[in-house]
Write a structure and sequence with these properties.
By secondary structure, the chain is an alpha+beta fold. It is about 55% helix and about 10% strand. The strands form two sheets. Strands 1, 3, 4, 5, 6, 7 and 8 form a seven-stranded antiparallel sheet that branches. It has a two-stranded parallel ribbon with strand order 2-9. Helix 4 crosses helix 5, helix 12 crosses helix 15 and helix 14 crosses helix 16.
């Protein structure tokens, strides 16, 4: 017995008893004795179609949730439900030679142990629209951007499920070595690719007039198609891609020439370090930084001017918002608080800080007009200026977090740091 089995033994014993209760319920009669019935049901309907089975739903749901807790990094809810339903319950319900109690218990335990000890990895490739790459791959976080070769394209197109219109115009794919079963790994990989693309968008793309020609993204999102084609482990195509789409009309960016030079290498190293940091070891401010990156990236995507402008403000509030003392907030106000924090984080000197404070107050006045039903006229120039300013706050916060570490780990500590800056005499900071 492995260490993992020993530590989970009591839980597995309890869950096995619950599975046996479900088997006994099915064996008492009803449609579950017919294998054809199982073929027409799903884990979500097997307990609903026959009155005597309905009490089993809560038992089944409890087993599923407890199994997920025992192996959260590798299992998806979908995998657990289908494995328990068709890998155990169906087999035991229709078994002509019903095993004895101990044998049934052993089978239940084996099914559960197989799930709890699952360790699987999938290599998932996402085609990326409107991006080129020369020579060797580029890695950011857990994502490797690679050149799509002619051989890749032929392999993709020859598969019936991957008849992708315009695939010849796709030059790069993003690869993630993702942990978990099929659904778990797919979710993980999509999150990592979107995060990498969010970083590219907010740090390297303009927010204003030229922005509309920037259409880098996963195929299926760019062009507003209904689904995303994927390559799993070099051979399996996960999602049928049916909808026609148009990826033309966008500029094609070369990753090393147009994107990576936008930042200095130390900045890329800091971003990469943050992305690679385990989620449970990130500070609250580090998570706020990643959330701010996401919202600012959302503001670069096609939408109304007003919606994009408000998304920029969401990004700023996510980055530096939050107040430890309600009474102080009443006196100072949200706008003053956000403006001051942003000014100290991103400002280079007194004049720069005063300019940041002034600009944020003006932008928040415009935001208020939009949110509260005023005219709220917004131009692309406004979006660009506001977006560039919030980008500066992101880079400033990234630098401060690298330097201060735990001293800037929470909103409360951020407020203490800002107060220290506020009352530090010139020349002593």
């Amino acid at each position: 017995m492995s260490k993992k089995q020993k530590s989970n033994q009591s839980t597995i014993d309890r869950l096995s008893q619950n599975l046996i209760k479900l088997v006994e319920m099915f064996r008492k009669g009803g449609p579950a004795s017919d294998f054809k019935w199982w073929g027409g049901e799903t884990p979500h309907t097997i307990f609903d179609s026959y009155p005597s089975y309905q009490s089993g739903r809560s038992i089944f749901n409890t087993v599923v949730q407890d199994v997920l807790k025992l192996n959260p990094d590798m299992l998806s809810k979908h995998e657990v439900e289908w494995k328990l339903t068709y890998g155990f319950l169906e087999q035991q319900a229709i078994c002509p030679d019903q095993p004895g109690e101990q044998e049934l218990m052993n089978k239940a335990k084996n099914c559960l142990i197989e799930l709890v000890e699952l360790e699987a990895w999938q290599e998932i490739d996402f085609p990326i629209a409107n991006l080129r790459l020369k020579r060797k791959p580029v890695k950011l976080g857990y994502v490797t951007f690679m050149v799509m070769t002619k051989q890749d394209i032929k392999q993709w197109q020859k598969n019936y499920d991957a008849q992708i219109r315009g695939i010849a115009d796709i030059h790069v794919f993003a690869r993630v070595h993702a942990p978990g079963d099929f659904n778990k790994s797919l979710s993980y990989a999509r999150i990592q690719v979107n995060l990498a693309l969010d970083v590219f968008r907010i740090l390297c793309f303009p927010f204003g007039p030229i922005k509309d020609s920037c259409g880098i993204g996963t195929l299926g999102e760019v062009g507003f198609a209904k689904s995303t084609p994927l390559r799993i482990n070099q051979k399996q195509f996960a999602i049928h891609f049916e909808s026609p789409f148009d990826i033309s009309g966008y500029a094609i960016f070369e990753l090393r020439k147009h994107v990576l030079p936008k930042l200095k290498q130390p900045q890329w190293a800091s971003i990469n370090k943050l992305i690679l940091k385990a989620e449970d070891s990130r500070s609250k401010m580090e998570n706020k930084l990643l959330d701010g990156i996401h919202w600012l990236a959302e503001s670069t995507k096609p939408d109304s001017y007003r919606a994009r402008f408000v998304k920029v403000s969401f990004a700023l509030e996510t980055l530096v918002g939050g107040e430890p003392k309600d009474e102080e907030l009443k006196v100072r106000g949200i706008t003053a608080m956000v403006a001051e924090r942003a000014a100290f984080i991103a400002g280079k000197d007194l004049d720069d800080r005063l300019a940041i404070d002034r600009d944020i107050r003006r932008y928040y006045g415009m935001r208020g007009d939009i949110v509260h039903g005023g005219e709220g006229n917004v131009s692309l120039s406004d979006i660009n200026s506001f977006g560039v300013l919030v980008r500066r706050v992101i880079l400033g916060l990234l630098k401060r977090l690298d330097k201060l570490g735990d001293d800037l780990a929470t909103v409360e500590k951020l407020e203490i740091w800002v107060k220290t800056q506020r009352y530090t005499l010139q020349g002593q900071s």
